[in-house]
Design a protein that fits this description.
It is built from ten helices and eight strands. By secondary structure, it is α/β, with parallel strands linked by helices. The relative contact order is 0.10.
Length: 236
């Protein structure tokens, strides 16, 4: 049976797109697959940090033209923010070792994801590995939700070989909700094979005193973002 002309053209286009991809392009796609969103600055530093911005921006434009990524149009703050397209996800999946989420998070999560992206770059410079975001964990067949419902924002491998988790929580929650979270995360540490050995719970500076009183656990540390970076600078 002869191949349909439309299908043949589409197959040819996909093959041409793949030949356009360079190694650092794939790293940029991997970042968006794991984090959901990325602005031009984060993508440059993650995938092209050892080369100039102009080269990185040219490659990002090439990824746009080839329809691997697209700009989030309704997010106005600069710099521009990008997500994977269906073509980008389909192309990335066989090139990575995790299940690529089928959709990015909701756009109201962009500031949250960009803040996590900054933390990721900081930690990876310090030698951490195996970064897995909540978006990837959610679709991973090997991950079980904490207490049946909680997914930390990230689980990563520390330099000492142990795994740690980070929860970036900007919402003001009731004491009841916080105690439920404490119980779920606390119970994880009592398992014979816990998924991580320490949890960093990041909140705004004004909430640190309150949350610290509620999260009284040796393996859970409540911090604001600057304090976390200082702590990791010293101990990671």
């Amino acid at each position: 049976m002869r191949e349909d002309g439309g299908k043949k053209k589409e197959r040819k286009k996909r093959s041409e797109r793949k030949t356009l991809l360079q190694e650092r392009d794939i790293e940029a796609l991997r970042y968006l697959g794991e984090m959901g969103f990325g602005n031009v600055d984060l993508l440059w530093r993650f995938a092209w940090g050892s080369v100039g911005k102009v080269v990185a921006y040219d490659r990002i434009e090439a990824l746009l033209r080839a329809a691997f990524i697209e700009q989030v149009k309704d997010y106005l703050p600069r710099p521009k923010v990008f997500i994977l397209t269906d073509i980008g996800r389909e192309t990335l999946q066989p090139l990575c070792n995790f299940v690529v989420p089928s959709h990015p998070p909701k756009t109201n999560m962009i500031p949250h994801q960009l803040e996590l992206g900054e933390l990721r770059l900081f930690l990876e410079k310090k030698g951490i590995t195996n970064w897995r975001s909540a978006e990837v964990l959610q679709v991973s067949p090997d991950f079980t939700r904490i207490g049946g419902k909680l997914i930390p924002d990230v689980i990563y491998k520390r330099r000492n070989g142990e795994f740690a988790a980070i929860e970036l929580d900007r919402a003001r929650r009731s004491r009841r909700r916080l105690k439920e979270r404490l119980e779920a995360y606390g119970n994880e540490f009592f398992k014979s094979r816990p998924m991580f050995s320490r949890l960093f719970y990041i909140v705004s500076p004004a909430l640190v005193p309150l949350y610290s009183k509620i999260f009284k656990h040796d393996l859970i540390k409540v911090l604001d973002f600057p304090d976390l970076k200082r702590r990791l600078e010293e101990n990671e």
